[in-house]
Amino acid sequence: MLLTDQLLLNFQRCHRQAFLEMYGERSVRGQVNDFLLKLGQDKQRFQDSLTFDQTIAQPEYPYHDWEAGSMATLDLMRQGVPVIRKGVLMSFRTDQYSFVSTPDLLIRRSGVSVWGDWLYVPVDVKLSKRPKLEYQILSAFGADVLAVVQQVPTEVAWLYLKDKGWYAIDLPKVMPQMEALRDELLQMLLYQQEPEVFIARNRCSMCVWFDHCYAIAQSQNHLSLLPGVTPTRYPVLRAQNLATAEILAETDPIHLHAKTGLGHEISSKLVSQAQAFVYQQPVLLTSARAFNDFDALPTAAVELYFDIEAEPGLDLVYLHGVFVVDRQQNHQQFYPFLAKQPDEEMQAWQDLVALFQRYPDAPIFHFCAYEVQTVTRLARLYGAPDGFIQSMLPRFFDLHEWVTRTAVLPIESYTLKLIARWLGFEWRNTAANGAQAICWYSEWLETGNETLLNDIVLYNEDDCRATYHVKEWLTEFLGQQTALDLQPLASGF
Ligand code: SF4
After folding, report:
1. Across 176-195, average pLDDT
2. Do 160 and 234 fall into the same domain?
């Protein structure tokens, strides 16, 4: 069995993913999505852009033929090639398994090794802004394999980060963590211990095994489909035989707290979430009642629904979409402020500012905090009229925060897409999502295909309209709760 660095990376993200990569049925493995492919291409471009004063060589070998790759890399190391790109390192541990590492770069240094008076240090190149522990662990794994290959302890290993440059791994600190994880992975693979499905939306939505795992989770009514059941809370619930949404829905939150030690608010929210799920009905959060939240969501003559599209790889905000709802005139209009090229970002920003100023009293509804953060950042970057930000901040209403603070819904995740779909809203292009829009914009820049821009604008408009739908529903829902709250009072008079 070959234990590769990629498997170790998968294992760190999800034990089950590593298992499926080794033993899963290939026919149920999905395609790598466009966004991940784009990230791979971006990384490749960045690696290719790195230049060195010394000679660079790359081993040639058939795709995924690690043994051939390792032989070709050994050949280059033996020759003392100064920089080896995409080398393959292999160490045979027992007759049951071998380790395979594929460091992005191997750089020759002076020192003593099996090759003579030189040795190699491993470097992994990452687009990441910070030296994530999962990358440090991979580098430690590579350092360990390299030590066997060149028969000298590896004392340094590096990450090269796009924005921050060189980062030296603290090998004495990270190596024991890597060994513990690697041994746990080995154990799982050697004994074919298939980990249980656990759907965690952030992690699973991009995974090639998602459809397969999701179907299993659904068939089992798995508790991980319930928002709020995190990987750490799940075993706590299981230990108390609270293994289904039905049981949880019937549990008193005070007992749940007493049995599990979970906080009062978490216990209460979990029970409400289970009830919403089982009875397929929204539930008002008791905390919302206490804070009387539902008095403060405004309805105005003119309202703006705002959504941004950005390309993180280019640090670019390329589209501000605003859906203007004029209730008095019974008129709705969508305005896309689009930077067709990266150097038009400032113009798009100025057009947005002008629209916001045209409706100085209109509340601005958006979903999640990104829009407010971005407006604040762009105002600093490109400037804005005096007092602009101070006057804008009270106008923003984050509907994600509003929904999650006041209600629980019979959905699996509180994304705009799932909430709006539960309300019956459908995006006109079903293939569209935020990650896909990033890919489309990148492809537009490369090909000049205007259809891609149109797809992005359509998607952005639908995001704004979906936000409008959510707001309309929430206003009505909270209004109904207020009316219910007032009933006993009214009958008492
Ligand atoms: S879909 Fe989720 S649970 Fe399944 S392998 Fe992927 S990350 Fe793991």
Report:
1. 97
2. no
Element of type H or E holding 373: helix 370-382
* Number of Cβ within a 10 Å radius of residue 166: 9
One domain for residues 386 and 422: yes
Q: Can you tell me which residue has the tokens 């947005």? A: 352
With beta carbons less than 8 A apart as the criterion, state whether 315 and 452 touch: no
Q: What is the C-alpha to C-alpha distance for residues 97 and 145, in angstroms, rounded to an integer?
A: 13
Residue 442 CA from chain centroid, whole number: 19
What is the 3-state secondary structure of 211-237?
HHHHHHHHHCCCHHHCCCCCCCHHHHH
Residue 198 structure tokens: 């656990």
Q: Could you list the residue range(s) of the whole structural domain that residue 30 is in?
A: 2-190
The reply to whether 281 and 313 lie within a common domain is no
Give the rounded percent of residues in the chain with a pLDDT score beyond 90. Answer: 85
Could you tell me if residue 195 is inside a domain? no
Q: Taking the complete model, does pTM exceed 0.70, yes or no?
A: yes
Percent of all residues in the chain with a pLDDT value above 70, rounded to a whole number = 96
Helix (H) or strand (E) holding 171: helix 171-190
- Among residues 402, 357, 401, 400, the alpha carbon closest in space to that of 375 is found at 357
392 and 422 share a domain? yes
Residues 218 and 275 in one domain: yes
- Is 18 close to ligand 1, i.e. is its CB under 6 Å away? no
Domain boundary among 190, 224, 239: 190
The conformation of residue 196, written as its DSSP 8-state character, comes to: P
Q: Is 209 in the pocket of ligand 1 (CB under 6 A)?
A: yes
Q: What distance in Å separates the CA atoms of residue 105 and residue 336, rounded to the nearest whole number?
A: 44
> Does some domain include residue 465?
yes
Q: Does residue 273's CB lie within 6 angstroms of at least one atom of ligand 1?
A: no
* φ/ψ (deg, to 5) at 313: -60, -30
- Cα of 37 from ligand 1 centre, angstroms: 18
Q: Which residue has the higher pLDDT, 164 or 181?
A: 181
- Is residue 204 within 6 Å of ligand 1 at its C-beta? yes
Domain count, the chain: 3
pLDDT score for 302: 98
What is the number of the ligand 1 atom nearest to the C-alpha of 197?
A: 3
Task: Identify the domain boundary among 289, 309, 324.
Answer: 289
Q: Using alpha carbons, list the distances in angstroms from residue 407 to 101, 230, 465.
A: 48, 19, 21
Q: Is-contact 288 407, C-beta < 8 A?
A: yes
